[in-house]
Amino acid sequence: MTATPQARQIGTRLPKPARRRQLLTAAQEVFVAQGYHAAAMDEIAERAGVSKPVLYQHFPGKLDLYLALLDESVDALTATVRAALESTTDNKQRVTATFTAFFDFVGNTGQAFRLVFESDLRNEPAVRSRLDESSRDCAEMISEIIREDAGLGDEEAHLLGMGLVGMAQVSAIYWLSTDRAIPKDAAEQLTARLAWRGISGWPRAGDGTAADQ
Known about the structure:
The chain is mainly alpha-helical. The chain has helices at about 15-40, 40-50, 50-60, 60-85, 90-110, 115, 125-150, 155-175, 185-200.
């Protein structure tokens, strides 16, 4: 295995935050390439250019390291979706922006999205809890808008929000699996249009008209 630039710096003293970032970067590369179960702490330490004791000083075990990466990834996804929803008050544009957020997350994170969407550790309670919370948080942000604009109940709005999250996630992953056969902008518009044709059918609360035309 070819040593990374970090691996050539064994023995270099780094501030704790910089060292943590170095370890997380190396761990992400190994986890994404091999999955959790096949990844070894020895390889992560070597990739980072540190000894195993140094790695264990920062992360007591492999699961702790994986959860730290997962926390970063789900936080990034949630922040991206929140920014998309807050980028406009036009609901049709919000739908497009939300789909763009998922396509961006899948296409621009260097395969880190696999930690969230394709984890081989989903049966681990701590991992499952974080993944479920991420989906709920994204769905809740969307459902708040649906609830306000369509006058639906909490459970109905959340179900629709979860449906839109699932649709955006699955379509973005499928698009990437086709080696981007459709240009990203076109893929986003295509799937967002499908979603909008459905969600816009609910009338705006109080006036009986469609959510946006």
